[in-house]
Give the backbone structure.
Amino acid sequence: MTITRASDPPPLQRSIRLPHATAMVVGTIIGASIFVQPSEMTGAVPSVPGLLAAWAVAGLLTIAGALICAELASAFPRTGGVYVFLNETLSPAIGFLWAWAMFWSMHSGIIAAIAVICARYIGYFVPLSAAGLRVTAIVIILALSAVNYAGVRHGSRLQAAFTLGKLVAIASMILLGFLLGSHLPHFVGGRTAPDLIRQFPRAVAAGLFAFGGWHMVTYVAGETVEARRTIPIALMLGTAIVTACYVALNVVYLYVLPLGAVMSSTRVAADAADALLGSGGGAVMSALVVFSTFGAVSGIVLLGPRVYFSMAGDSRWFAWLGAVHPRFRTPYRAIVLQAVWSSALVAIGTYRALFTRVVYTEWIFFALMAVGLIAARRRPGYGATYRMPGYPVLPVLFAAVSAAIALSQLVADPAQGSIGLLLVVAGLPVYSLGRRTDA
């Protein structure tokens, strides 16, 4: 079996077009968190204005990040996305640390967390013990990894079908909420203004997890038709659709349920549907969440191994990860390794711990990505075919806020934040050893 390097023509099949790429953006973002995170966020800022402000800040940061990512994708349309951007604009070491952190925490952690939420909502229909919930989540990960093992065409079409279905269901939920809802938003006090200000970054971080995944479509640039044009458009369309859905759904939650109920709920979407439709409403909404999360895991499972594939092409030490299946033309070893580790995270982690590590480590690299864009713009021969608006103010602000978010997570939860940081730092000796091996 031939192992290719990044400098060789990519053997992966180009079959992803604009509708599929846009579906990937929407489908990977709208997974599970919008049906869970309002409770996490309300626990930090228990007021309607505070909650809506946190969602607004998270949404604006996501849009800014998507604009940065869109420009870099047009300049470096290779499989690997953020890994390639950091590698090309700043340093191969930083690019390696992104892929390293992706595997051990960020990407695998997202897969594990969303699979756990999917299993939690399956528990609405079939009572599950704590062990049963984890087993169910692991089965979900392994099953969807098998689908994506069999080909990117199967995975992208499955993602598009799930995305269309969940958008129709969410639109129905929003419409029913405004037609049938009878409660007005409630203001819940209980915290002083300084306390709310201190907890606001925690709420924004939880919101960012709900918006997470906007950058992942760049991972499959090598399998995308006309990637320089398709990926920027998909990013813009996808983030706009998601932002509209999130704002509307949160308004429905607050319109239908008292804020205290939103804060205490572990299945806020099902509780809102119960309030609208009676006892059967929760079952309908739980089925939607299972459908949505299943589709999200499918897309995220598909995208991550492309980064490891790209990294493998840049290093003989990791070349075994770049093996492409002779029949399915997928990076099958990377898919299998990701499935195994994500399943292990389900077995040992908790939902809060998983998303805390993900947000903390991920936004360090997003800050560096914005710095990389500024550095790339100053170089001769920079070949971006799309230029983001608001340059240089927007990337500078994005980098500063991203760094502040990462710092706030470390301060708010030193234990989990330290674990995330140590995982990143642990990649440095591995990178150094790999360089000596490649020399």
User: Anything to note?
Assistant: Confidence is low (pLDDT under 50) at residues 1-10, 183-192. Residues 19 and 160 are 8 Å apart (CA to CA). The radius of gyration is 21 Å. The longest helix spans residues 279-313.
